[in-house]
Amino acid sequence: MRSTRKNWSHLPHDLLLQIAKRLGLIDLLRFRVVCKDFLHASSTATGENEVESLPWFLAYGRRSCECTVISYTRGSTSTKIHTLNLPQLQGGAICLGSNQGWLLVFQRGSMFFFCPFSKAKIDLPDFPCTKLKTYHTAAFSCPPWSQDCIVIVITRIDNGHIGLYLLNGGYNNNNNNWISYKFNLEKSQLHNIEGGAYYYGETFYFFDSRGKGISYSPTEQLLKPYLNKIRRVIISSKDDQRVVEIHPPLEYSKETIGEQANQEFTFGFSSFHLLSMNVWELLGFQAAEAEFSTCGTLTQLEHLQVGIQNEKVMSPLRPKISGVWIHPRFFSISAFA
């Protein structure tokens, strides 16, 4: 009796959809290139099995469009190295912000949202600056398809002023223009804005590399500086802002931050993440053998929302590597159209 071989592409669409939704992110990317039926069936899958993962590290900006991804698993020491072909991150692209699987990218005067795992791209109105002559960092409040999405880019203009650029509106709402603000803020209050930018609890937080910070509320349009010694963690609650001393590597737990921390609304930041996550060695470098410039993101550790700081590690050696911490998610533009 002659056996009949079945074609995997002829599986029912609903079954293929259920398979796609159960795949991890990298397996989902492989699933999508099998055939057109697999690609169509996975159009709404997001790699949701990776929701509990730690942020992954994406190294980009080398001469080729080949980027390296280091994947981490929460509660495990195992890591994996993956390669992605991302021409969108060539040509002087700079990742200014990272949130929930989306990157905010500046490239040759244009600004856009980009999901590197699906290659989904959402163009934004032209940024007021065609070149970033000084250091800029950014945060956005929620995924770009939300009409409530607020984007803020911040930079130091001079020794006495901070420049803040704000854009309202999300997906399919690109008719808005950037609004520019100029705030009086001495360097003694905020040296630079290289530490990181995050959105949490309806407030934007910006840190410098010396441990000082400012908060900005879009509803109040107020910029509030608060001081903090280097290598300390800022804990912000509904009632006040206080500082607790936690030296890296940071281990966030109820006992570490103390009983008085408000568990419903607490926030901290993590320094030296490149070192603690062993990025140098995983990319094949010894410490200080390469120059790194990275963009952080916000993640959950224990009951704390923790901001992974931006890092700039200088080295006279080559190569120069740009990197960004990103949550492993897959988003298709068509899914939200």
Shape: globular
By secondary-structure content and strand pairing, the structural class works out as: mainly beta
Q: Please give the largest β-sheet.
A: 6 strands, mixed
Q: Oligomer, anyone?
A: single chain
Secondary structure: number of strands: 23
Given as residue ranges, the uncertain stretches (5+ residues, pLDDT < 50) are 229-265
Protein name: F-box domain-containing protein
InterPro entries: F-box-like_dom_sf, F-box_BR-signaling, F-box_dom, KIB1-4_b-propeller
Pfam families: Beta-prop_KIB1-4, F-box
Organism: Rhamnella rubrinervis
Question: What topology emerges from the helices and strands here?
Answer:
Elements: H1 13-21, H2 25-32, H3 36-41, E1 56-60, E2 66-72, E3 79-85, E4 94-99, E5 102-107, E6 110-115, E7 120-123, E8 136-140, E9 150-158, E10 161-168, E11 179-184, E12 196-200, E13 203-207, E14 213-217, E15 222-226, E16 233-236, E17 241-244, H4 254-257, E18 267-270, H5 273-276, H6 279-282, E19 291-295, E20 298-301, E21 304-308, E22 311-313, E23 320-326
Parallel strand pairs: 18-21, 19-23
Antiparallel strand pairs: 1-2, 1-23, 2-3, 4-5, 5-6, 6-7, 8-9, 9-10, 10-11, 12-13, 13-14, 14-15, 16-17, 19-22, 20-21
How would you describe what is shown here?
It is a single chain. The protein has six helices and 23 strands. It is mainly beta. A six-stranded mixed sheet has the order 3-2-1-23-19-22, with no helix packed on it. A four-stranded antiparallel sheet has the order 4-5-6-7, with no helix packed on it. Strands 8-9-10-11 form a four-stranded antiparallel sheet, with no helix packed on it. It is globular, with a radius of gyration of 21 Å. This is F-box domain-containing protein. Residues 5-38 form the F-box domain.
